[in-house]
Write a structure and sequence with these properties.
210 residues, alpha+beta, Spore Coat Polysaccharide Biosynthesis Protein SpsA, Chain A, six-stranded mixed beta sheet, 8 strands, 24% strand, binds 1-O-phosphono-alpha-D-glucopyranose
């Protein structure tokens, strides 16, 4: 909470909501329905970190203002890793935006409609809550936001946004370590942590020599 507050604008408010059972991402989102109310909202899965001068969600907000509906961050992943992600059936592509014709949660590579995967950033319409409240179970026996978004195709616009920046998957040890290094090494550029990046580069250089 202290860390979160350190980076928040003055008028921002933090509300905690607990998901009392591990019933899936869709259920976790549904648990926040009262905090969300009747406005579009963002979902950030913190095990996906994106390093870029403009944050992934800021990039998405710009696109969302033109599109409305539901918007998800997407990235091409290796074909043999589709079973780790929500994967889209792509429609028309305009620059960095892809209209989504269909979505499948964690398909085996042989069943995947493409290798374009959802990364953990969403801007969602509050209407998703209604579909989520049906508590339909999907992949892994969990309530999946991917299935809800698929159900809303045709009723609301749904787009994927190919974000700028490097994504780190902190859900595995190597990705977590890489993210720590990459973010720390970038600190000299942003000035937020003084010359931390420069110092770390020198320390890493010494470690690599041993
Ligand atoms: C969740 C979503 C999945 C998405 C992924 C991104 O899966 O269900 O659609 O592609 O996040 O990281 P999880 O990583 O929680 O299994």
């Amino acid at each position: 909470m202290v860390l979160l507050q350190a980076g928040l604008p003055e008028n921002a408010k933090i509300t905690e909501v607990f998901q009392d059972k591990p019933l899936g991402l869709g259920h976790a989102i549904w648990c926040a329905r009262e905090a969300v109310g009747d406005e579009p909202f963002a979902v950030i899965l913190p095990d996906d970190m994106v390093l870029h001068g403009t944050g992934c969600l800021s990039q998405m907000v710009k696109q969302y203002e033109k599109l409305g509906g539901n918007l998800v961050a997407i990235e091409a992943v290796p074909h043999d890793q589709t079973q780790r992600y929500g994967v889209l059936e792509p429609g028309a592509e305009t620059g960095t935006l892809v209209a989504i014709k269909g979505l499948v949660e964690k398909p085996a590579p042989a069943d995947a409609p493409s290798n374009l995967a959802i990364i953990g950033r969403y801007i969602l319409d509050p209407q998703v809550m209604e579909d989520l409240s049906a508590f339909n179970k999907g992949a892994g026996g969990e309530i999946q936001i991917t299935d809800t978004l698929a159900n809303l195709i045709g009723k609301q616009p749904l787009h994927g946004y190919k974000f700028q920046g490097q994504r780190y998957d902190c859900g595995n040890r190597l990705g977590f370590l890489a993210a720590n290094l990459a973010f720390a090494l970038s600190q000299g550029d942003t000035g937020r942590q003084g010359d931390l990046g420069e110092k770390l580069r020198s320390v890493l250089g010494d470690i690599m020599k041993t």
